Batch of 4 targets.
Target 1
Amino acid sequence: MRPARGTVRLFRGDARRLDGVRDATVHLVATSPPYPMIPQWDEVFRLQGAVDYPGMLALLEGAWREAHRVLVPGGILAVVIGDALRRTDGEFRLWPNHADTLVAAARLGFRPLPYVLWKKPTNKPNAFLGSGFVPPNAYVTLDCEFVLLFRKGLLRRFPPHDPGRLASRFTRAERDLWFSQVWEDLRGARQAGRRGRTGAFPTALAERVVRMFSVVGDTVLDPFAGTGTTLWAAAALGRNAIGVEWDGPTFATLAEEARTRGLLATDPSPPR
Ligand SMILES: C[S@@+](CC[C@H](N)C(=O)[O-])C[C@H]1O[C@@H](n2cnc3c(N)ncnc32)[C@H](O)[C@@H]1O
């Protein structure tokens, strides 16, 4: 039986300052930030004062710090992120977003857990960068993104026969597929939004993460909500969702969508 739908609360604001969210009230933070050193996100970072790789990482670190504050003990942080390949100052190199995010979150007190490699079939064709068929100057294709996983402190505890937990069971087949380290069965999401590419991840990915790391009745937060994929998935699965989005037009579209879906718990907070 499908659980009753959850509700969605929305805030227009900054993932680094979740004023509307109290300490230790969120069970799962599932999100995908703007990726450092990916040109699509340069302007968004620049408008927030982050103009180089360390600055971009520092911005994201502020969001992970805030995620730690709002999570309950035992709550999970799931971060979908990809590395970047880019030439700057004449140097073409990898910018290891996943590795730096792992280190930053661990420094903030999160416990790193085994992560997932999300192999995106759509990234594969025509991606070869190099010079024909001779070594050594070609590059391996970046066709995986990462679902980094962290826990705040020790394991979450439940009373015996907790109804929300029992209602959140997955099947053996789901467990075998979801808890393997490489996910090859999920396609990328459609990227066209009103203002160009959205950076959205697929609904199936959001649903999977929500079902793996939260139970019915929990609160799921996406502090970089974008088109709201996490929020709609969480609400459909009987979790209550909180979404935070900094960009005005993106936020307006998000709020309209939440209203259309009849999911808003309260009116969105006014822009700050
Ligand atoms: C990769 S997209 C998220 C896409 C989302 N997972 C989806 O499926 O649509 C990142 C989002 O974070 C927003 N953003 C950037 N900086 C932010 C900040 N400081 N606080 C909150 N949101 C921010 C961007 O405007 C963008 O919508």
Note: The chain has a mean pLDDT of 92.
Target 2
Amino acid sequence: MRTIAVMSPKGGIGKTTTADSIAYILGEEHEKKVLILDGDPQGDTSKTFGCYETEETGMSRLLEYHVCAGGEWHTPELIWPTKYPHIDMLPANGYLVRTDLNLMISQEENQITRLKKALAEVSEKYDYCICDCGRLFDMVVINILIASELIIAPVKVGGYENEAINSLCEQVTDLQEINPELKIKGILTMRQKNKTSLEFEEYLKTVSGLEMFETPIRRSIMAEKATIAMTALPAFSKSGIVTQDYRSVVQELLEEMEV
Ligand SMILES: Nc1ncnc2c1ncn2[C@@H]1O[C@H](COP(=O)(O)OP(=O)(O)OP(=O)(O)O)[C@@H](O)[C@H]1O
Ligand SMILES: [Mg+2]
């Protein structure tokens, strides 16, 4: 199983849209066996895949009460099927805030490696695990980044967004001491065809030092409509421009991961 995190310290930048679209295209169009993991207490991706509930659920139980943490849960018991045959889910909700606090005060040595250990239980069952992260660099997200080999970092035009990615890159350098295989690759989202946007794209590709996906993701109202409908974008808008762009990104990803 190849584990990929979608992470940016900025809110509303397209993390969930990117994670959901990549998971959907890998699973339902390329017939990979995909586990989508929700690492955000907002539970947005759990809602998209029809796995949201208000009781304590998947990721909270896994990070607090998995057998590797002295608890009673095994990973397969916490995974839900979705309505898509190739996609299963580890859901999350607001309980993840408590989970973060409990991990922070935990005296256990494995407080940042629990997810990696727990996912090892299902590593033969799935080809890909795609993780949607919250925007805080909290204990839940650190667990995800320790378990991942690649961070896909959405970035859009703007000064603060660029600074946020720089600080994420610095944090990744620190994490590489624990997880040396961790890489980061940017993806331009909500791209518009104006001078500022094109100049920023050029800057990202040539000056920023951040490795980028070749394909930028264009801005379209269809993405917002899919979010309102709580449906993965490629299922909502099969031939829309944003879906087409995510298909190209998945092609790039497969070429990189499956050489
Ligand atoms: N390519 C796009 N074109 C237009 N709108 C987009 C695009 N991608 C995402 N959006 C919209 O931007 C909003 C934020 O997207 P999304 O929820 O994916 O961001 P996020 O980074 O996960 O946010 P949060 O920080 O709240 O988790 C949503 O309404 C979504 O539909
Ligand atoms: Mg999100």
Note: The first strand starts at residue 2 and ends at 6.
Target 3
Amino acid sequence: MTVLTAPAVLAGCLAAALSAGAAFADNSLVGFPEDHAEGLHYGTVERGNITEELYTDREAIEAAKRGEPFPSGTVITLVDYRGGDLHRYVVMEKRDGWGALSPAGTGAGDWLFREFAADGTPNPAEDGTRCMSCHRPQARQDFVFTVDRMKSVE
Ligand code: HEC
């Protein structure tokens, strides 16, 4: 019986690990962007009752203008307002070597993604996999959608 049950136990463990997100990158490396408000506001996206304010730093803007990949250490913060109220923060951060933390095919370059509630607490249900799958088609501009807005910053 042991021979028959061992694979079943292993399969169960694997399913549990997958459902817990353990097979994916540890996005807890991305901290709350305390300094986003002092960062450089480079754009606003409005869609229905959603308003998104976009922040990064001067080095990232200069890289975008030169058409180069973003430097290691870049943090981009999107502050999401719904009906005028602060709803959440979504953050992407790039560090040399972070790409190796995502299993092949699930990542987005050296970026990790994390979501924070309006009070700054991280959303534990969001490991960044969904974020990365939607940003991955932007690979030719280093996985960032709003590069054109960065280029138009003075
Ligand atoms: C369904 C596709 C989709 C998903 C899922 C998604 N994003 Fe985005 N993201 C976008 C688009 C499109 C933009 C450009 C702004 C806009 O049009 O709202 C964007 C913009 C951003 C930006 C500003 C930099 C940029 O790329 O322009 C950040 C930061 C960001 N997203 C983080 C996240 C995080 C963190 C998650 C997961 C919690 C996430 N995104 C999930 C589509 C997505």
Note: Helices lie at 2-19, 58-66, 129-135, 147-151.
Target 4
Amino acid sequence: MYATDLQKHWENVYETKDTTRVGWFQQKPIVSLNFFEYLEIPKSAKILDAGGGDSLLVDYLLEMGYQNITVLDISAAAIHNAQIRLGSLADEVQWIVDDLSKCQLDEKYDVWHDRAAFHFLRESEELQHYLNLVRRAVKSGGFLIIGTFSKTGPTNCSGLPVTQYSTEELIDFFSNYFEPIKCLNSDHITPGGVEQNYSFCAFRRK
Ligand SMILES: C[S@@+](CC[C@H](N)C(=O)[O-])C[C@H]1O[C@@H](n2cnc3c(N)ncnc32)[C@H](O)[C@@H]1O
């Protein structure tokens, strides 16, 4: 039994698809990792991968020596896939199954990373909830690294409509609480060979 249709959608994706073939799959999340390097995130940083799914970001961060990583996703199946892949290393990671458009977080983080989850939020209440969540959860001086489909990217992801953002729109959305450090656009090539343009921004919590 699923809490919402949205959760049902994502459980179905992660239970039925080969997630190394889905559009957002990356063998190595280079753009995100480059931001960690650029921002000189210390290995002790408390990191949240919001809507992390079964992304390999956590694998690379563990390999780099990060020790305080949490992965949050609406899909328990996504989290399960990632845990199976990591084996005993999964015990070194905190896992949360929850909905970013509704949940509350008890912990505070040095880094909030979100690639291709925020862009699914379309209702103004959901967007406001996300903004409040991230502003409360990121420590003062902490970082937000966020990637969405850009204005020239797709209008749908996993069969769901998304909001496309220019880097300027990302800056504008988070401007009350976060100051931009670096923004860029990058092309992601899907496993099927399709080019998708992303807007990425890194911010510092004011
Ligand atoms: C396109 S995938 C991207 C996954 C991962 N960030 C990556 O880059 O490979 C979007 C992810 O966001 C999750 N997601 C979508 N809406 C969500 C929500 N409201 N709360 C939490 N996770 C959500 C999905 O389950 C899925 O894992």
Note: Residues 5-14+31-205 form a domain with the Rossmann fold fold (CATH 3.40.50.150).
